[in-house]
């Protein structure tokens, strides 16, 4: 047992120390990853310095195509994954001196089609989300048009001298009762200022 393995029991389980010079994720991070999905594995990247490859163990049995891919692949990280019977998933970038798997696990959960019942179920969910987004856009446009038409109508009534609110204010209602203000008659024309106000 190596000195690193004695300190971190997850080495060889879901961490492969391909580059001994790279910092090893602490046990609590690798435990989080294992509890989320025990088929996920972390390896130091051979392609991007100071970054890691997140990969998944291959589900199917080894076949001759694997060796052909290994022999012909030129991308170092993909080649490393194939040699370890893994499928690359994404890159992991360590920020600062600490380790935090929460954001990575949230991203994985959002992208994992198996958690929602496979590719077809995920496609149905995406279609439903797209339809809901389209309906919201339609509703927003309808509300906006309603508000704009209401504002245009009020502006028209104000420009033609007509009242928008038939009731008017309380003071106007009181004056009408006393006979000091007659109802406003509006012209049939739509030209601004063509309305006629009649006072008693």
Order of helices and strands: HHEEHHEHHH
What is the percent of helical residues?
40-55%
Shape: elongated
Rg value: 35 Å
Regions with little confidence, pLDDT below 50 for 5+ residues: 1-5, 185-200
- What share of the residues does DSSP label as strand, in percent? 5-15%
Query: Could you give the order of strands across the largest sheet?
Result: 1-2-3
Structural class: mainly alpha
Whole-number mean pLDDT: 77
How many beta strands in the DSSP annotation? 3
The major pleated sheet works out as: 3 strands, antiparallel
Helical region count? 7
Ends apart, CA distance between termini: 107 Å
Describe this structure in words.
The chain is mainly alpha-helical. It has a domain at 3-111. Helices cover 46% and strands 10% of the residues. It contains seven helices and three strands, in the order H-H-E-E-H-H-E-H-H-H. The chain has a three-stranded antiparallel β-sheet, with helices on both faces. Helix 3 (64-72) runs antiparallel to helix 4. The longest helix is centred in the C-terminal third of the chain and has 41 residues, at 119-159. It is elongated, with a radius of gyration of 35 Å. Residues 1-5 and 185-200 have low confidence and may be disordered.
Topology (SSEs and partners):
Elements: H1 3-7, H2 27-36, E1 40-44, E2 51-57, H3 64-72, H4 76-83, E3 86-93, H5 102-111, H6 119-159, H7 170-178
Antiparallel strand pairs: 1-2, 2-3
Properties at a glance:
mainly alpha; 3-stranded antiparallel β-sheet; elongated; 200 residues
Summed up, what is this model?
The protein is mostly helical and 200 residues long.
């Amino acid at each position: 047992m190596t000195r690193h393995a004695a300190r971190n029991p997850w080495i060889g389980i879901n961490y492969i120390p391909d580059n001994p010079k790279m910092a090893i994720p602490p046990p609590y991070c690798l435990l989080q990853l294992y509890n989320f999905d025990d088929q996920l594995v972390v390896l130091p990247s051979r392609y991007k310095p100071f970054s890691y490859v997140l990969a998944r163990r291959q589900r199917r049995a080894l076949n001759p195509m694997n060796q052909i891919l290994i022999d012909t692949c030129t991308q170092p990280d993909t080649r490393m994954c194939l040699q370890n019977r893994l499928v690359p998933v994404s890159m992991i970038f360590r920020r600062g001196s600490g380790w935090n798997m929460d954001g990575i696990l949230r991203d994985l959960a959002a992208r994992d089609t198996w958690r929602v019942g496979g590719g077809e179920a995920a496609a149905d969910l995406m279609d439903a989300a797209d339809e809901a987004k389209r309906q919201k856009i339609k509703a927003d446009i309808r509300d906006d048009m309603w508000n704009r038409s209401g504002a245009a109508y009020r502006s028209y009534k104000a420009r033609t001298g007509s009242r928008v609110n038939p009731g008017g204010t309380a003071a106007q209602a009181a004056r009408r009762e006393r006979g000091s203000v007659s109802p406003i008659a509006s012209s049939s024309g739509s030209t601004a200022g063509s309305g006629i106000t009649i006072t008693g």
